[in-house]
């Protein structure tokens, strides 16, 4: 993948396991967020980007001509570092996606909002204030509302770009617990700068450096017996 | 952060090295006290065990602090885990040096018997295996660690030969049953030193090669490089 003439991602090849959490780690500028955005073609929105190669989801190349990018992003949801609720009510935030996908019955929407909130472990905190503005919630709650919003369109894959980096340890723990719950029937790919978080939550881990994957292995192996000296030095905080 | 961790790990390593050299000295002095019938030196060994115990506590606390403050991973994690295990073995070796020193007095009048039983053949090898086990940690040398593990087999063989020499002496010379019984207890202690040295060598292989080889019956694990 190139930004103009800058070769941002090189020779990337990895299989991401379904219903598992895969963490992407590496120093700033190493290409991990860029790689994450290739998985739902979010880089398409950036000018001057060239992409070579394939990204296959369920055996289908998402870069094939004619791919419906809107349905792709329905299938591959995304959570960003900073929670970004719409300036609407909690209910409207979560019902927004299903509504534009044609769900109009109030009862169906109410049911889906509840299911999504429960899956995002936010239901008990918002069930009595669904009509209040989502922007009035705490940072951790806003992030879980955003997760509920992503879940409401029933994605298969959830991309998370440093989803807890702006949260306190308690809110972070809630997000991490939620990820454990979700991976039972959702594939999660997370970018994190927090080594302990990568070690705690992920099943597999890919270490990016200068746009390449240096090492990709089971997380327990990477954090106890890394193969590459660069990986050892990065995960133990010697650079990055 | 990493400067802090590097400094902490370096200090931890230094503590293990200092403790190792103290334990090595304690063992050498306990043998000297035994062979020379030097009760004063035996007492010194017993008194200095406090120093070994202090290192034991210091190293435990240091490891606890590093775990709590830095959440080490990979090599750093293995270094701290090895330090904890090696500390435990060194402390036990220090206790054995005390046990050997305690046997010096009852065997004061039997230095000829010690010579006849060729106990020194074993203690020379023990000093070598103990030194090598500490050296392999100091120099991060997993090849030397493998040779330490192989050395333990030789010591086990010497221990068995010694056992038969002592029991033969007991049969042929009943007057020497009591000192021979002391000698049997002593050799059992001395042999345990080699076991602890072997444990240290296994910890060094865990540290350097990230392989757990303790309890392994696979000789390939111990194949030395040509």
Question: In terms of topology, how is this protein built?
Answer:
The complex is a heterodimer of chains A (240) and B (226).
Chain A: E1 2-3, E2 6-7, E3 21-25, H1 32-38, E4 49-50, E5 56-57, E6 60-61, H2 69-75, E7 76-79, H3 90-100, H4 106-119, H5 123-126, H6 139-151, E8 157-161, H7 169-182, E9 187-191, H8 195-201, E10 204-209, E11 212-218, H9 219-224, H10 229-235
Parallel strand pairs in A: 3-9, 3-10, 7-8, 8-9
Antiparallel strand pairs in A: 1-2, 1-4, 5-6, 10-11
Chain B: H1 2-36, H2 39-70, H3 74-104, H4 111-116, H5 119-138, H6 142-172, H7 177-209
Structure notes:
The complex is a heterodimer of chains A (240) and B (226). Chain A has 240 residues and is α/β, with parallel strands linked by helices. Chain A has a domain at 2-85 and 155-235: 3-Layer(aba) Sandwich (Rossmann fold). Chain A has helices spanning 32-38, 69-75, 90-100, 106-119, 123-126, 139-151, 169-182, 195-201, 219-224, 229-235, and strands spanning 2-3, 6-7, 21-25, 49-50, 56-57, 60-61, 76-79, 157-161, 187-191, 204-209, 212-218. In chain A, the strands form three sheets. A six-stranded mixed beta sheet of chain A has the order 7-8-9-3-10-11, sandwiched between helices. In chain A, β8 (157-161), α7 (169-182) and β9 form a beta-alpha-beta unit. In chain A, α3 runs parallel beside α6 and α4 (106-119) packs across α6. Chain A is globular, with a radius of gyration of 18 Å. The two termini of chain A are 22 Å apart. The relative contact order of chain A is 0.19. The model of chain A has no long low-confidence stretch (mean pLDDT 94). Chain B has 226 residues and is mainly α. Chain B has a single domain (2-222), classed as Methane Monooxygenase Hydroxylase, Chain G, domain 1. Helices cover 83% and strands 0% of the residues of chain B. Chain B has seven helices and no strands. Chain B has helices spanning 2-36, 39-70, 74-104, 111-116, 119-138, 142-172, 177-209. In chain B, α6 (142-172) packs antiparallel against α7 (177-209). Chain B is globular and about 65 Å long. The mean pLDDT of chain B is 93. At the A-B interface, α8, α9 and α10 of A face α1 and α3 of B.
């Amino acid at each position: 993948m190139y930004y103009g003439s800058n070769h941002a991602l090189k020779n990337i090849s990895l299989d991401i396991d379904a219903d598992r959490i895969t963490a992407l780690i590496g120093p700033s500028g190493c290409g991990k967020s860029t790689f994450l955005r290739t998985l739902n073609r979010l880089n398409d929105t950036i000018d001057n980007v060239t992409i070579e190669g394939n990204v296959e989801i369920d055996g289908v190349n998402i870069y094939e001509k004619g791919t419906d990018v809107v349905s792709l992003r329905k299938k591959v949801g995304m959570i960003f570092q900073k929670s970004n609720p719409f300036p609407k009510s909690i209910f409207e935030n979560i019902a927004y996606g299903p509504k534009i996908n044609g769900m109009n019955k109030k009862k169906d929407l109410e049911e889906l909002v509840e299911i999504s909130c429960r899956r995002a472990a936010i239901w008990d905190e918002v069930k009595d204030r669904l009509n209040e503005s989502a922007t009035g919630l705490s940072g951790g709650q806003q992030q879980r509302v955003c997760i509920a919003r992503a879940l409401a369109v029933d994605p298969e894959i959830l991309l998370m770009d440093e989803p807890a980096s702006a949260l306190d340890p308690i809110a972070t723990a809630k997000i991490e617990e939620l990820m454990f719950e979700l991976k039972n029937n959702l594939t999660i790919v997370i970018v994190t700068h927090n080594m302990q978080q990568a070690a705690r939550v992920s099943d597999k881990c890919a270490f990016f450096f200068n746009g390449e994957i240096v090492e990709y292995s089971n997380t327990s192996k990477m954090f106890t017996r890394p193969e590459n000296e660069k990986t050892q030095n990065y995960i133990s905080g010697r650079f990055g | 952060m990493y400067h802090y961790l590097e400094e902490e790990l370096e200090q931890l390593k230094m503590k293990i090295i200092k403790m190792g050299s103290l334990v090595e000295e304690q063992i050498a002095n306990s043998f000297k006290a035994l062979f020379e019938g030097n009760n004063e030196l035996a007492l010194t060994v017993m008194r200095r065990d406090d120093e070994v115990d202090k290192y034991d506590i210091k190293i435990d606390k240091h490891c606890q602090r590093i775990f709590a403050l830095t959440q080490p991973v990979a090599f750093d994690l293995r270094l701290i885990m090895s330090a904890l295990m090696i500390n435990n073995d060194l402390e036990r070796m220090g206790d054995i040096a005390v046990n050997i020193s305690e046997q010096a007095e009852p065997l004061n009048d039997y230095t000829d018997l010690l010579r006849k039983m060729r106990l020194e053949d074993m203690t020379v090898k023990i000093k070598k295996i103990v030194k090598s086990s500490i050296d392999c940690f100091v120099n991060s040398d997993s090849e030397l660690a493998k040779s330490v593990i192989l050395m333990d087999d030789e010591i086990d063989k010497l221990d068995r030969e010694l056992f038969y020499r002592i029991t033969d002496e007991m049969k042929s010379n009943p007057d020497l049953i009591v000192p021979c019984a002391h000698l049997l207890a002593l050799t059992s202690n001395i042999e345990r030193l080699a076991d602890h040295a072997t444990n240290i060598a296994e910890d060094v292989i865990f540290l350097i090669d990230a392989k757990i080889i303790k309890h392994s019956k696979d000789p390939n694990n111990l194949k030395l490089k040509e």
